[in-house]
Amino acid sequence: MLENFREAFDGIRSHKLRSALTMLGIIIGIASIIAISSTIMGTNEQIKQNLVGAGSNVVTVRLYQGDYPFDSQQTAPEYIPPLDGDTLNEIRSVKEVASAAYYAQRDAYGQIRSGGKALSAGTIYGVDDTFLSVHGYTIRAGRGFTDSDNAKFRKVALIDESVSAALFSGANPVGETIDICGEPYVVIGEFAQASDFRPTVSTLEEYFTYNTSTGGKVLIPFSTWPVLFRYDEPRSLVLRAVNTDSMTAAGRRAEEILNGTIRKDNPEVRYKSEDLLEQAKNLQELSSATNRQLILVAGISLIVGGIGVMNIMLVSVTERTPEIGLKKALGARRRRISAQFLIEAGVLTCLGGILGVLVGIGLAYGISKMSGVPIFISWYIVAATVVFSFIIGMAFGAIPAYRAARLDPIEALRHE
Protein backbone atom coordinates (compact mmCIF):
# COMPACT_ATOMS: atom_id res chain seq x y z
CA MET A 1 0.00 0.00 0.00
CA LEU A 2 2.77 2.45 0.93
CA GLU A 3 4.51 1.59 -2.34
CA ASN A 4 1.36 2.61 -4.22
CA PHE A 5 1.33 5.99 -2.48
CA ARG A 6 5.02 6.51 -3.21
CA GLU A 7 4.51 5.73 -6.88
CA ALA A 8 1.50 8.08 -6.96
CA PHE A 9 3.59 10.99 -5.65
CA ASP A 10 6.42 10.11 -8.03
CA GLY A 11 3.98 10.19 -10.96
CA ILE A 12 2.62 13.59 -9.91
CA ARG A 13 6.13 15.04 -9.49
CA SER A 14 7.26 13.76 -12.88
CA HIS A 15 4.35 15.54 -14.62
CA LYS A 16 3.97 18.69 -12.55
CA LEU A 17 2.22 20.90 -15.11
CA ARG A 18 -0.14 18.18 -16.26
CA SER A 19 -1.01 17.30 -12.67
CA ALA A 20 -1.62 20.97 -11.79
CA LEU A 21 -3.96 21.45 -14.74
CA THR A 22 -5.76 18.23 -13.86
CA MET A 23 -6.28 19.41 -10.26
CA LEU A 24 -7.57 22.82 -11.39
CA GLY A 25 -11.19 21.71 -11.69
CA ILE A 26 -11.07 20.14 -8.23
CA ILE A 27 -9.43 23.25 -6.75
CA ILE A 28 -12.06 25.56 -8.23
CA GLY A 29 -14.95 23.36 -7.08
CA ILE A 30 -13.69 22.89 -3.51
CA ALA A 31 -12.72 26.57 -3.19
CA SER A 32 -16.19 27.64 -4.35
CA ILE A 33 -17.92 25.34 -1.88
CA ILE A 34 -15.73 26.49 1.05
CA ALA A 35 -16.21 30.18 0.21
CA ILE A 36 -19.98 29.91 -0.28
CA SER A 37 -20.61 27.71 2.77
CA SER A 38 -18.47 29.99 4.98
CA THR A 39 -20.43 33.02 3.81
CA ILE A 40 -23.77 31.23 4.35
CA MET A 41 -22.87 30.17 7.89
CA GLY A 42 -21.52 33.62 8.74
CA THR A 43 -24.63 35.33 7.41
CA ASN A 44 -26.91 32.92 9.26
CA GLU A 45 -25.06 33.56 12.52
CA GLN A 46 -25.42 37.30 11.95
CA ILE A 47 -29.17 36.91 11.35
CA LYS A 48 -29.47 34.88 14.54
CA GLN A 49 -27.53 37.44 16.58
CA ASN A 50 -29.42 40.36 15.05
CA LEU A 51 -32.79 38.93 16.05
CA VAL A 52 -31.94 37.14 19.27
CA GLY A 53 -29.31 39.61 20.47
CA ALA A 54 -26.03 39.00 22.19
CA GLY A 55 -27.06 36.32 24.63
CA SER A 56 -30.27 37.96 25.87
CA ASN A 57 -32.27 34.74 25.28
CA VAL A 58 -35.55 36.56 25.96
CA VAL A 59 -38.90 35.17 24.80
CA THR A 60 -42.22 36.98 25.19
CA VAL A 61 -45.55 35.14 25.42
CA ARG A 62 -48.59 37.27 24.57
CA LEU A 63 -52.30 36.74 24.19
CA TYR A 64 -53.45 36.39 20.57
CA GLN A 65 -56.89 36.45 19.04
CA GLY A 66 -56.52 34.33 15.93
CA ASP A 67 -53.37 35.51 14.12
CA TYR A 68 -53.27 38.97 15.73
CA PRO A 69 -52.25 40.18 19.20
CA PHE A 70 -55.19 40.61 21.52
CA ASP A 71 -56.20 44.27 21.84
CA SER A 72 -54.90 45.29 25.26
CA GLN A 73 -57.52 48.01 25.51
CA GLN A 74 -60.27 45.40 25.57
CA THR A 75 -61.50 43.88 28.80
CA ALA A 76 -60.21 40.35 29.21
CA PRO A 77 -62.92 37.78 28.39
CA GLU A 78 -64.31 35.90 31.37
CA TYR A 79 -62.84 32.62 30.13
CA ILE A 80 -59.32 34.09 30.52
CA PRO A 81 -58.53 34.12 34.26
CA PRO A 82 -55.93 36.53 35.68
CA LEU A 83 -52.40 35.13 35.68
CA ASP A 84 -51.42 34.22 39.23
CA GLY A 85 -48.26 33.42 41.12
CA ASP A 86 -48.77 29.65 41.00
CA THR A 87 -48.78 29.68 37.19
CA LEU A 88 -45.66 31.86 37.17
CA ASN A 89 -43.87 29.50 39.56
CA GLU A 90 -44.78 26.55 37.32
CA ILE A 91 -43.24 28.33 34.33
CA ARG A 92 -40.13 29.19 36.34
CA SER A 93 -39.72 25.50 37.21
CA VAL A 94 -39.41 24.51 33.53
CA LYS A 95 -35.84 23.32 32.95
CA GLU A 96 -35.34 25.51 29.86
CA VAL A 97 -36.46 28.66 31.74
CA ALA A 98 -33.95 30.66 33.79
CA SER A 99 -36.40 33.32 35.00
CA ALA A 100 -39.81 34.78 34.12
CA ALA A 101 -42.07 37.72 34.95
CA TYR A 102 -45.53 39.04 34.06
CA TYR A 103 -46.12 42.48 32.56
CA ALA A 104 -48.86 44.62 31.06
CA GLN A 105 -48.29 46.74 27.97
CA ARG A 106 -49.96 49.71 26.27
CA ASP A 107 -48.87 51.83 23.35
CA ALA A 108 -48.98 55.53 24.18
CA TYR A 109 -49.13 58.28 21.57
CA GLY A 110 -48.67 61.77 22.99
CA GLN A 111 -49.68 60.55 26.48
CA ILE A 112 -46.24 60.80 28.09
CA ARG A 113 -45.30 64.41 28.85
CA SER A 114 -42.99 66.60 30.84
CA GLY A 115 -43.44 70.34 30.88
CA GLY A 116 -44.18 71.44 27.35
CA LYS A 117 -42.67 68.33 25.75
CA ALA A 118 -44.53 65.17 24.77
CA LEU A 119 -43.34 61.80 23.53
CA SER A 120 -44.89 61.25 20.10
CA ALA A 121 -44.74 57.46 20.39
CA GLY A 122 -43.86 55.11 23.20
CA THR A 123 -44.87 52.09 25.23
CA ILE A 124 -45.97 51.90 28.85
CA TYR A 125 -45.26 48.72 30.80
CA GLY A 126 -46.72 47.66 34.12
CA VAL A 127 -44.09 45.48 35.77
CA ASP A 128 -42.84 44.00 39.02
CA ASP A 129 -39.36 44.28 40.51
CA THR A 130 -38.07 41.19 38.60
CA PHE A 131 -38.98 42.42 35.11
CA LEU A 132 -35.72 44.34 34.60
CA SER A 133 -33.43 41.38 35.29
CA VAL A 134 -35.56 38.96 33.24
CA HIS A 135 -35.57 41.29 30.22
CA GLY A 136 -31.86 42.01 30.52
CA TYR A 137 -32.17 45.67 31.50
CA THR A 138 -29.76 47.50 33.78
CA ILE A 139 -30.12 50.77 35.70
CA ARG A 140 -27.99 53.56 34.26
CA ALA A 141 -29.01 56.23 36.77
CA GLY A 142 -31.11 56.25 39.94
CA ARG A 143 -32.60 53.01 41.20
CA GLY A 144 -34.91 50.22 40.10
CA PHE A 145 -38.24 49.10 41.51
CA THR A 146 -38.51 47.48 44.91
CA ASP A 147 -41.19 45.26 46.47
CA SER A 148 -42.44 48.24 48.45
CA ASP A 149 -43.03 50.27 45.27
CA ASN A 150 -45.66 47.76 44.23
CA ALA A 151 -46.90 47.05 47.75
CA LYS A 152 -47.41 50.74 48.57
CA PHE A 153 -48.79 51.68 45.11
CA ARG A 154 -46.10 54.30 44.59
CA LYS A 155 -46.48 56.35 41.41
CA VAL A 156 -42.88 56.04 40.28
CA ALA A 157 -41.46 55.32 36.85
CA LEU A 158 -38.37 54.14 35.02
CA ILE A 159 -37.61 55.54 31.57
CA ASP A 160 -35.21 54.53 28.83
CA GLU A 161 -32.62 56.67 27.08
CA SER A 162 -34.90 57.76 24.23
CA VAL A 163 -37.57 59.05 26.62
CA SER A 164 -34.91 60.84 28.64
CA ALA A 165 -33.51 62.50 25.53
CA ALA A 166 -36.95 63.51 24.24
CA LEU A 167 -38.34 64.91 27.50
CA PHE A 168 -35.22 66.08 29.34
CA SER A 169 -32.73 66.72 26.51
CA GLY A 170 -30.17 64.38 28.02
CA ALA A 171 -30.20 65.95 31.50
CA ASN A 172 -30.42 63.71 34.56
CA PRO A 173 -34.11 62.74 34.76
CA VAL A 174 -34.00 61.22 38.25
CA GLY A 175 -36.37 63.08 40.58
CA GLU A 176 -38.26 64.76 37.75
CA THR A 177 -42.01 64.32 37.31
CA ILE A 178 -43.62 63.09 34.10
CA ASP A 179 -47.27 63.04 33.17
CA ILE A 180 -48.59 59.62 32.04
CA CYS A 181 -52.16 59.73 30.78
CA GLY A 182 -52.90 62.66 33.07
CA GLU A 183 -51.30 61.13 36.18
CA PRO A 184 -48.02 62.42 37.71
CA TYR A 185 -45.22 59.88 38.12
CA VAL A 186 -41.80 60.57 39.65
CA VAL A 187 -38.84 59.27 37.62
CA ILE A 188 -36.67 57.15 39.94
CA GLY A 189 -34.24 55.85 37.33
CA GLU A 190 -33.13 55.41 33.74
CA PHE A 191 -32.62 51.93 32.33
CA ALA A 192 -30.93 50.45 29.28
CA GLN A 193 -30.20 47.06 27.74
CA ALA A 194 -27.51 45.34 29.78
CA SER A 195 -25.63 44.36 26.60
CA ASP A 196 -24.29 46.98 24.22
CA PHE A 197 -25.25 44.70 21.30
CA ARG A 198 -26.53 46.43 18.17
CA PRO A 199 -27.77 44.56 15.09
CA THR A 200 -25.77 44.80 11.90
CA VAL A 201 -28.11 46.43 9.39
CA SER A 202 -26.88 46.81 5.82
CA THR A 203 -30.08 46.96 3.75
CA LEU A 204 -33.47 48.66 3.95
CA GLU A 205 -35.15 45.25 4.29
CA GLU A 206 -33.00 44.43 7.31
CA TYR A 207 -33.86 47.83 8.82
CA PHE A 208 -37.58 47.07 8.78
CA THR A 209 -36.90 43.52 10.00
CA TYR A 210 -34.86 44.50 13.03
CA ASN A 211 -36.13 48.01 13.83
CA THR A 212 -39.36 47.01 15.53
CA SER A 213 -39.31 49.62 18.29
CA THR A 214 -41.94 52.34 17.91
CA GLY A 215 -40.52 54.71 20.51
CA GLY A 216 -39.35 54.98 24.10
CA LYS A 217 -40.28 52.74 27.02
CA VAL A 218 -41.71 53.78 30.37
CA LEU A 219 -42.02 51.25 33.20
CA ILE A 220 -44.39 51.68 36.14
CA PRO A 221 -45.25 49.38 39.08
CA PHE A 222 -48.02 47.01 38.05
CA SER A 223 -49.96 47.83 41.20
CA THR A 224 -50.52 51.36 39.84
CA TRP A 225 -51.61 50.10 36.41
CA PRO A 226 -55.34 50.41 37.28
CA VAL A 227 -54.78 54.11 38.02
CA LEU A 228 -54.15 54.57 34.30
CA PHE A 229 -56.02 51.68 32.71
CA ARG A 230 -58.49 48.89 33.51
CA TYR A 231 -58.10 46.45 36.36
CA ASP A 232 -58.81 43.38 34.27
CA GLU A 233 -56.54 43.89 31.27
CA PRO A 234 -54.72 40.67 30.32
CA ARG A 235 -51.04 40.42 31.11
CA SER A 236 -48.19 38.97 29.08
CA LEU A 237 -45.15 36.94 30.07
CA VAL A 238 -41.47 37.54 29.47
CA LEU A 239 -38.97 34.75 30.16
CA ARG A 240 -35.27 34.26 29.85
CA ALA A 241 -34.17 30.88 28.51
CA VAL A 242 -31.14 29.12 29.98
CA ASN A 243 -29.38 29.50 26.61
CA THR A 244 -30.13 30.61 23.06
CA ASP A 245 -30.85 27.13 21.74
CA SER A 246 -33.46 26.58 24.50
CA MET A 247 -35.56 29.61 23.53
CA THR A 248 -37.99 27.71 21.32
CA ALA A 249 -38.57 24.93 23.85
CA ALA A 250 -38.97 27.42 26.72
CA GLY A 251 -41.50 29.50 24.76
CA ARG A 252 -43.52 26.47 23.69
CA ARG A 253 -43.66 25.08 27.23
CA ALA A 254 -44.76 28.46 28.62
CA GLU A 255 -47.46 28.57 25.92
CA GLU A 256 -48.81 25.21 27.05
CA ILE A 257 -48.91 26.22 30.71
CA LEU A 258 -50.64 29.56 30.07
CA ASN A 259 -53.10 28.08 27.59
CA GLY A 260 -53.94 25.47 30.21
CA THR A 261 -55.54 28.26 32.25
CA ILE A 262 -57.95 29.17 29.40
CA ARG A 263 -61.26 27.38 28.93
CA LYS A 264 -61.02 24.86 26.11
CA ASP A 265 -64.28 25.94 24.44
CA ASN A 266 -62.68 29.09 23.01
CA PRO A 267 -60.01 28.24 20.42
CA GLU A 268 -59.76 31.80 19.08
CA VAL A 269 -57.89 33.37 22.00
CA ARG A 270 -54.60 31.72 22.91
CA TYR A 271 -51.19 32.60 24.29
CA LYS A 272 -48.39 32.44 21.71
CA SER A 273 -44.66 32.86 22.13
CA GLU A 274 -42.90 35.39 19.96
CA ASP A 275 -39.93 33.20 19.20
CA LEU A 276 -37.12 35.28 17.73
CA LEU A 277 -34.99 32.18 17.32
CA GLU A 278 -37.68 30.65 15.09
CA GLN A 279 -37.85 33.90 13.10
CA ALA A 280 -34.09 33.77 12.73
CA LYS A 281 -34.30 30.20 11.42
CA ASN A 282 -36.93 31.23 8.87
CA LEU A 283 -34.74 34.10 7.65
CA GLN A 284 -31.76 31.76 7.52
CA GLU A 285 -33.70 29.34 5.34
CA LEU A 286 -34.70 32.21 3.07
CA SER A 287 -31.14 33.47 2.72
CA SER A 288 -29.76 29.95 2.22
CA ALA A 289 -32.14 28.92 -0.60
CA THR A 290 -30.24 30.81 -3.30
CA ASN A 291 -26.88 29.86 -1.82
CA ARG A 292 -27.72 26.16 -2.03
CA GLN A 293 -28.14 26.62 -5.76
CA LEU A 294 -24.71 28.27 -5.89
CA ILE A 295 -23.21 25.29 -4.06
CA LEU A 296 -24.89 22.97 -6.59
CA VAL A 297 -23.32 24.94 -9.44
CA ALA A 298 -19.95 24.76 -7.67
CA GLY A 299 -20.45 21.01 -7.31
CA ILE A 300 -20.72 20.71 -11.10
CA SER A 301 -17.11 21.89 -11.38
CA LEU A 302 -16.13 18.95 -9.16
CA ILE A 303 -17.73 16.59 -11.67
CA VAL A 304 -15.85 18.37 -14.47
CA GLY A 305 -12.67 18.03 -12.42
CA GLY A 306 -13.37 14.34 -11.90
CA ILE A 307 -13.81 13.85 -15.63
CA GLY A 308 -10.47 15.60 -16.14
CA VAL A 309 -8.85 13.22 -13.67
CA MET A 310 -10.34 10.21 -15.49
CA ASN A 311 -9.08 11.54 -18.81
CA ILE A 312 -5.53 12.10 -17.58
CA MET A 313 -5.46 8.71 -15.88
CA LEU A 314 -6.49 7.03 -19.16
CA VAL A 315 -3.57 8.85 -20.82
CA SER A 316 -1.31 7.64 -17.99
CA VAL A 317 -2.44 4.04 -18.52
CA THR A 318 -1.59 4.33 -22.23
CA GLU A 319 1.82 5.84 -21.49
CA ARG A 320 2.67 3.20 -18.92
CA THR A 321 1.38 0.17 -20.79
CA PRO A 322 4.86 -1.45 -21.16
CA GLU A 323 5.47 -0.88 -17.42
CA ILE A 324 2.14 -2.56 -16.62
CA GLY A 325 3.01 -5.47 -18.91
CA LEU A 326 6.39 -5.93 -17.20
CA LYS A 327 4.78 -5.91 -13.73
CA LYS A 328 2.25 -8.51 -14.82
CA ALA A 329 4.98 -10.65 -16.38
CA LEU A 330 6.80 -10.55 -13.03
CA GLY A 331 3.68 -11.76 -11.23
CA ALA A 332 1.78 -8.61 -10.26
CA ARG A 333 -1.91 -9.35 -9.85
CA ARG A 334 -4.80 -7.35 -11.25
CA ARG A 335 -5.70 -6.08 -7.78
CA ARG A 336 -2.17 -4.66 -7.36
CA ILE A 337 -2.29 -2.84 -10.72
CA SER A 338 -5.83 -1.55 -10.09
CA ALA A 339 -4.92 -0.24 -6.61
CA GLN A 340 -1.92 1.62 -8.03
CA PHE A 341 -4.02 3.70 -10.42
CA LEU A 342 -6.93 4.17 -7.99
CA ILE A 343 -4.61 5.53 -5.31
CA GLU A 344 -2.84 7.77 -7.81
CA ALA A 345 -6.17 9.28 -8.86
CA GLY A 346 -7.22 9.67 -5.22
CA VAL A 347 -3.97 11.35 -4.22
CA LEU A 348 -4.22 13.70 -7.20
CA THR A 349 -7.74 14.87 -6.26
CA CYS A 350 -6.93 14.93 -2.54
CA LEU A 351 -4.06 17.33 -3.16
CA GLY A 352 -6.44 19.37 -5.31
CA GLY A 353 -8.93 19.34 -2.43
CA ILE A 354 -6.34 20.61 0.07
CA LEU A 355 -5.27 23.40 -2.28
CA GLY A 356 -8.96 24.16 -2.92
CA VAL A 357 -9.59 24.51 0.83
CA LEU A 358 -6.71 26.99 1.18
CA VAL A 359 -7.91 28.98 -1.84
CA GLY A 360 -11.51 28.85 -0.56
CA ILE A 361 -10.58 30.16 2.90
CA GLY A 362 -8.59 32.98 1.34
CA LEU A 363 -11.47 33.74 -1.02
CA ALA A 364 -13.95 33.78 1.89
CA TYR A 365 -11.85 36.27 3.85
CA GLY A 366 -11.44 38.38 0.73
CA ILE A 367 -15.21 38.49 0.16
CA SER A 368 -15.74 39.37 3.82
CA LYS A 369 -13.24 42.22 3.67
CA MET A 370 -14.63 43.70 0.47
CA SER A 371 -18.36 43.35 1.18
CA GLY A 372 -18.50 43.35 4.96
CA VAL A 373 -20.32 39.99 4.98
CA PRO A 374 -19.32 37.91 8.03
CA ILE A 375 -17.90 34.42 7.51
CA PHE A 376 -17.67 31.29 9.60
CA ILE A 377 -15.17 28.55 8.71
CA SER A 378 -16.48 25.10 9.63
CA TRP A 379 -13.57 22.70 9.99
CA TYR A 380 -16.05 19.85 9.74
CA ILE A 381 -16.93 21.01 6.22
CA VAL A 382 -13.24 21.52 5.44
CA ALA A 383 -12.42 17.93 6.43
CA ALA A 384 -15.49 16.61 4.59
CA THR A 385 -14.53 18.35 1.35
CA VAL A 386 -10.99 16.94 1.43
CA VAL A 387 -12.33 13.42 2.01
CA PHE A 388 -14.94 13.97 -0.71
CA SER A 389 -12.28 15.07 -3.18
CA PHE A 390 -10.36 11.84 -2.49
CA ILE A 391 -13.54 9.83 -3.09
CA ILE A 392 -14.09 11.66 -6.40
CA GLY A 393 -10.59 10.64 -7.49
CA MET A 394 -11.25 7.03 -6.56
CA ALA A 395 -14.62 7.06 -8.35
CA PHE A 396 -13.39 8.63 -11.58
CA GLY A 397 -10.17 6.65 -11.47
CA ALA A 398 -12.09 3.35 -11.44
CA ILE A 399 -12.38 3.06 -15.24
CA PRO A 400 -8.65 3.73 -15.93
CA ALA A 401 -7.71 1.36 -13.10
CA TYR A 402 -9.99 -1.34 -14.49
CA ARG A 403 -8.51 -0.89 -17.97
CA ALA A 404 -4.96 -1.11 -16.62
CA ALA A 405 -5.76 -4.25 -14.65
CA ARG A 406 -7.31 -5.91 -17.73
CA LEU A 407 -4.32 -5.39 -20.02
CA ASP A 408 -2.85 -8.54 -21.52
CA PRO A 409 0.80 -8.73 -20.40
CA ILE A 410 2.08 -9.96 -23.80
CA GLU A 411 0.27 -7.22 -25.74
CA ALA A 412 1.35 -4.66 -23.12
CA LEU A 413 5.04 -5.59 -23.56
CA ARG A 414 4.73 -5.26 -27.33
CA HIS A 415 3.15 -1.79 -27.02
CA GLU A 416 5.28 1.11 -28.28
Secondary-structure topology with pairs:
Elements: H1 2-14, H2 16-52, E1 58-65, E2 68-69, H3 85-92, E3 97-108, E4 112-114, E5 117-119, E6 122-127, H4 131-135, E7 137-142, H5 147-151, E8 156-160, H6 161-168, E9 177-180, E10 183-193, H7 204-210, E11 216-221, H8 225-228, E12 236-241, H9 247-259, E13 269-274, H10 276-319, H11 321-329, H12 334-371, H13 379-396, H14 398-405, H15 409-414
Parallel strand pairs: 6-11, 8-10
Antiparallel strand pairs: 1-2, 1-12, 1-13, 3-6, 3-12, 4-5, 4-9, 7-10, 8-11, 9-10
Helix pairs in contact: 1-12, 2-10, 2-12, 2-13, 10-12, 10-13, 10-14, 12-13, 12-14
Q: So what's the oligomer here?
A: single chain
Structural class: alpha+beta
What is the 3D form? elongated
Strand content: 15-25%
DSSP helical segment count: 15
Number of strands: 13
* N→C terminal distance: 29 Å
Order of helices and strands: HHEEHEEEEHEHEHEEHEHEHEHHHHHH
Helical content class: 40-55%
Evaluate the radius of gyration.
33 Å
The biggest sheet amounts to: 13 strands, mixed
Question: How many domain units?
Answer: 2
Descriptive notes:
With 416 residues, this protein is an alpha+beta fold. It has 2 domains: 181 residues, no CATH class; 201 residues, no CATH class. The protein is 54% helix and 19% strand. It contains 15 helices and 13 strands. Helix 2 packs antiparallel against helix 10, helix 2 packs across helix 12 and helix 10 packs parallel to helix 13. It is elongated, with a radius of gyration of 33 Å. About 4% of the residues have low confidence.
